[in-house]
Amino acid sequence: MISLTDDKKKKQSESERLSRRKFIKNSGYAVGGLAVGGVIGSVIPWDTEDKAAPQTNNKNNKTTNFTHALMNFSQAEFKMVDAATERIFPEDENGPGAKELGVAYYIDHQLAGSYGLNARDYMQPPFFNGEKVQGYQGRLRRKEIFRIALKEMQSYSQKKYKKGFISLTEEEQNAILTDFAEDKVKLMTVSPSGFFDLLRSMTLEGVYSDPLYSGNKDMDGWRMRNYPGNQMSYTDIIEEDFKDIPPKSLREHM
Amino acid sequence: MVKKLPKTDVVVVGVGWGGGIIAAELTKQGLNVVGLERGQERHTEDYYMVHDELRYAVRYELMQDLSKETLTFRSNSKMRALPMRQYGSFLMGTGLGGAGIHWNGQTFRFLPYDFNIRSATIERYGKNKIPADMTIQDWGITYDEIEPYYDKFEKMAGISGEENPLGGKRSSAYPTKPMKHSPPMKMFKKATEKLNYHPYTIPSANLSESYENPDGIARAACQYCGYCERFGCEYGAKADPVVTVIPVAAKTGKFDLRTHSWVRRVLHNGEKATGVLYTDVTTGEEIEQPADVVVLTSYVFNNARLLLNSKIGQPYDPSTGEGVIGKNYAYQVVKGGATGYFDDQKFNNFAGAGALGMVIDDFNGDNFDHSNLDFIHGGYLSLTQTGLRPIQNNPIPSDSPTWGKEFKKNSLNYINKTLSIGAMGASLPYKQHYLDLDPTYTDTFGDPIIRMTYDFKEQDRQLAKFTAKKSSEIMKEMGASKVDSMKELGPYNITTYQSTHNTGGVIMGADSKTSAVNNYLQMWDMDNLFVVGASAFPHNGGYNPTDTVGALAYRAAEGIIKYSKNGEKLA
Ligand SMILES: Cc1cc2nc3c(=O)[nH]c(=O)nc-3n(C[C@H](O)[C@H](O)[C@H](O)COP(=O)(O)OP(=O)(O)OC[C@H]3O[C@@H](n4cnc5c(N)ncnc54)[C@H](O)[C@@H]3O)c2cc1C
Ligand code: SF4
Description:
Chain B: This is GMC family oxidoreductase. Chain B: Belongs to the GMC oxidoreductase family. Chain B: Keywords: FAD, Flavoprotein, Oxidoreductase. The complex is a heterodimer of chains A (254) and B (571). Chain A contains 9 helices and no strands. Chain A is an all-alpha fold and 254 residues long. The relative contact order of chain B is 0.19. Chain B has one domain (3-566): FAD/NAD(P)-binding domain (3-Layer(bba) Sandwich). Chain B has 11 helices and 23 strands. The interface between A and B is large, with 74 and 79 residues. The structure holds flavin-adenine dinucleotide and iron/sulfur cluster. Residues 13-19, 36-39, 91, 93-95, 98-100, 102-107, 229-230, 262-263, 297-299, 302, 355, 500, 533-534, 544-546, 549 of chain B line the site of flavin-adenine dinucleotide.
């Protein structure tokens, strides 16, 4: 007797086998008759059993996203980042904005790890103020910059509008962010434009990195700009005019 | 206590293109070679999840860990040099294969003019054409002399290409046919032909077809996957040391490769190098590896740094212009390009390969008349299609907002409607531009790091303006609805990526007073020490450097083999 799950598994591995065969065919045709086992052989998925479900993007099939929890921000900080990133990359007629794409979760997770701790940056003293052409010379790490700058943003918002950042209108939030971006706020702690640039670049990362990092929900960031994500080969289209190819993520390789 | 190992014939410091080529050539001739590489082992299998822009291109997965070692930078000697704390302008490689793993594969020969730049410039324009503090010099080798070594590198790597109509003479055609032409490449070709220029396909180390090289190494064709520059190739289609020269060395049984081995000093008795001292970074143990011949292949910065920290050769002094180690640091002038926005056309900008593109050399070297220009040399202009990945590529017209509603709308609209022409401007050396040891900052072991003193000069500003103008004209001819291009070069800034084409510091030449190594890259001051890499370039040409690095490595290998037979100075 075959159980329902077994049956599903069978179907699943069948479809994977097909897609793998397609991949092998693709590269096989490029390899020609040459024996290049060590190279191509190594990247062809070696194990066809017991794999993750094939990729689907069924919007109605809402599953819990267990990565949407916090490992760095407080709830209040999270809400500010959620609101601020939405202003940088807002929802519009093209599709979702930062909020819906999970950008604030992405930033939270990044700050908790090596990037937030500047683990691969040179952080040895002595620290001196430098020229602009010499780049960042501060002793604060990104995680600390966010903590301090969000506090500063909140108090600037209180000072300017007598309200917290998340209670402001979109226009008011934009005005606050503009003041940071253009160094119109005078702070003793962090560089306002330095923080804004970091926030902006992390917003784009959260919109466009592989969904494996908790942003770019359902690959919708990619879909909005016709970016196909992780594809093994463009040999067939490189000489052609524009082609809209549905995106795939790295999950495809599991 | 330092552990002392048995002596070997040759020890190679750093196993990228330079180290890999030296190891393959020497072991094939029966010499025993120890290869010391500070980073980790690498395999094609590592790249199974490589289509990850964040990890590889934005977080620099494959590059040197700056927390352990960086360099310091200042624009001039009046400024305090400060560490490059985060990546920007250039990206140093580490680990087996070095930067050869994550390069693009654009594989150009320098022009005949480059090798005798000083005499050729004087001959055509007179002495006054060269500014007093510009320290260009002839290389001590001619194009004809280096040609066979270019040929060797190109056959080993399987370079795909067609002849450069304005380049030096070739002894044989490229081993594989040119890459495919995408629609934007066709547009560039048509426009530049119409303007009476001489377009050709960029010579590419991303194979256009499957290929077996003279060492019997077979590789597959490129898939135009769009994850090439800053990534390793999961197909082995991009020539890198791990899929070409390193297996050849390994097969001889004479190559003893040790990864996680960080070399800190070249040991010597004043006249000869006796070996190297390194730290096994997995255990912290200090180890001495004695050798008959020492070869430094640790990239521009560490080639200079190891010599300075080991007190070999005379350090360069910018106030007198005397001394050679650290002299003639040069870079590249790449900002003089143009971007075109096409309202009614869409391109597959997401697809591409690291070395896919078309190029012209009409404004490179001395291929055009400089009599009425305020600069010498030039650069190539190219249209490349390397795969525009979404985090790093959000082209918008120059006068539009960089965040918010308008930004989103523009960036989504323009991403597949934007094309760029890039310039690879030559960079010429100056008396004030050099490398030395930083007096304050150190690496993870407490050894002084390199200090770079460098800025753009009037020559660079004029050159960039010129190439920007020519690029814009081509872009207009291609039919762009709107063209943006560089207005002013501005000062050199270490925070924005330009190119990893650093050169100089241990330069070659015909005279031991003005150069550190001869044309076999053998130290004038120490016969059994060879220093290989772009550190040997007396200036940087209007091209990417690696074909020339590879050619010089083959030349050095030949010299080392000769030297180990008769023990004499080679030049
Ligand atoms: C993103 C990118 C794109 C590029 N694209 C192109 C291109 O299209 N065309 C082109 O011509 N060039 C390109 N380049 C440049 C090219 O990668 C280099 O010219 C080339 O790899 C240099 O080879 P190398 O062997 O001299 O140095 P590297 O490849 O840097 O190798 C040096 C090795 O030495 C090791 N090392 C350093 N110090 C020590 C030490 N103390 N002890 C032990 N080991 C040490 C390093 O870990 C490294 O592995 C590109 C570079 C980058 C980063
Ligand atoms: S573009 Fe070609 S050479 Fe580059 S990584 Fe992809 S398949 Fe390899």
